[in-house]
Amino acid sequence: MLLKSSKINEFRLWGLLLTVLGMGLMILGTAGIVFFGQSGKVFAAIGLVIGLISMLGSLGVYFWAGMLSTSAVQVECPECHKLTKMLGKTDRCMFCKTVLTLDPNKANITAEEVEAGQMVNHHAGHVHH
Ligand SMILES: [Zn+2]
After folding, report:
1. Which sequence ranges are marked TM in the entry (predicted)?
2. What are the pLDDT digits (tens) for 48-105?
3. Cβ pair 78, 98 in contact under 8 A
4. How far is the CA of 97 from the centre of ligand 1 (A)?
5. pLDDT: is 125 or 55 the higher one?
6. How far does the centroid of ligand 1 lie from the alpha carbon of residue 89, in Å?
7. How many angstroms separate the CA atoms of 100 and 116, rounded?
8. Residue 64: left if φ>0, alpha if ψ -120 to 50, beta else—which one?
9. 33 near 44, Cβ under 8 Å?
10. 40 CA to middle of ligand 1, Å?
11. Domain boundaries, the chain
12. Cα–ligand 1 centroid distance for 31 (angstroms)
């Protein structure tokens, strides 16, 4: 993971970035026609195609995130006591970014050890299905 956030939130962020990128490219492509006239049309076409692919990609990411979140396990965060969703065995809390795990073997390791490449610190709270 690139960011210190829960996996579902990260998917949403990438979806948003792709949408913004796609829209930006389409706007730039259209602006190309305005500023460069006939020769700008090539750039406009490229911008529109890449922009469209990017937007479709973001749609896919959103769809994937939606699918994943339905299969995510809902747990009560032991730190902030809010209900958060986990993907896989380990994930971060959506609210306080605490690392959570469903694997008892990896529980109760400090955050520093997690940063050092180890896994996980807090044992996930009660599991709600
Ligand atoms: Zn939390």
Report:
1. 12-36, 42-65
2. 898 889 889 888 888 888 888 788 888 888 889 999 988 888 889 989 988 888 876 6
3. yes
4. 6
5. 55
6. 16
7. 16
8. alpha
9. yes
10. 50
11. 7-71, 73-128
12. 45
Distance 121 CA to ligand 1 centre (A): 13
List C-alpha distances in Å: 5 to 25, 28, 51, 111, 115.
27, 31, 27, 14, 13
pTM over 0.90: no
What radius of gyration do the chain's Cα atoms show?
Answer: 20
- First-to-last C-alpha distance (Å) of the chain: 26
Whether 121 has a pLDDT exceeding 60, the answer reads no
Distance from the alpha carbon of residue 115 to the mean position of ligand 1, in angstroms: 18
At 5-19, the pLDDT tens digits run 888 888 888 888 999
Q: Does pLDDT of 30 surpass 80?
A: yes
pLDDT at position 127 over 60: no
Give the distance (Å) from ligand 1 centre to CA of residue 61: 24
State the pLDDT at residue 80: 92
For ligand 1, the distance from its centroid to the CA atom of residue 63, given in whole angstroms, is 25
CA of 120 to the centre of ligand 1 (A): 14
